[in-house]
């Protein structure tokens, strides 16, 4: 009887393990979806309020609203793609991508809220999934805009793309405490002084590793944090 009970316990554990894994992946998907859609949803609200109260800027606000709506659709597709890859169902849709142009497009589509963003790029082509890579860049920029400045002061963020397929995101904020550097890219961790948590950096790190690249954090020459995303440039 004891052996039968032990065998039954072992078999039931094996049987329930796939269900627990699926439940964990579902929870992670919902958390990622909430994180990625929160910023464009807030931007849509701001643009709608601007269009309602200011006739002069209504056309421009509506044009940006359409672009953001398209971006939200792309984000949802990217989330579904990531969920499929995490489950081992599919792989990244790799294709030649101009990293410099992608970074510039992400900056153009991001509401800076009065913060200053500078972009310096060199032409470089990488082989990557454009939707996933766009999400990683947007998350790094969003992190710098939120955490890369002192309270009450505008952020000063600089994005640099070099010909070796390296993207650096520098800010002039308080930086990342050394004790948090190792765990910064884990889910629900953040280097902000307020101690708030999020998924942006963990998603960016996941995208980097999915493409055989790396994502590191160090002290920026500007005094804040420097996030460095390294990919492999396409060889001719």
Name some characteristics of this structure.
single chain; 236 residues; alpha+beta
**Main beta-sheet annotation:** 5 strands, mixed
| Cα shape | globular
Order of helices and strands: HHEHEEHEEHHEE
Q: What spatial order of strands do you see in the largest sheet? A: 2-4-5-7-6
Q: Ends: how far apart?
A: 67 Å
Parts with pLDDT < 50 across at least 5 consecutive residues: 188-197
Mean pLDDT: 79
Description:
The protein has 6 helices and 7 strands, in the order ααβαββαββααββ. The chain is globular and about 80 Å long. Helix 1 runs antiparallel to helix 2, helix 3 packs across helix 4 (130-147) and helix 4 (130-147) packs antiparallel against helix 6 (200-210). With 236 residues, the chain is α+β, with helices and mostly antiparallel strands. It has a 5-stranded mixed beta sheet with strand order 2-4-5-7-6. A two-stranded antiparallel ribbon has the order 1-3. The model is unreliable at 188-197 (pLDDT under 50).
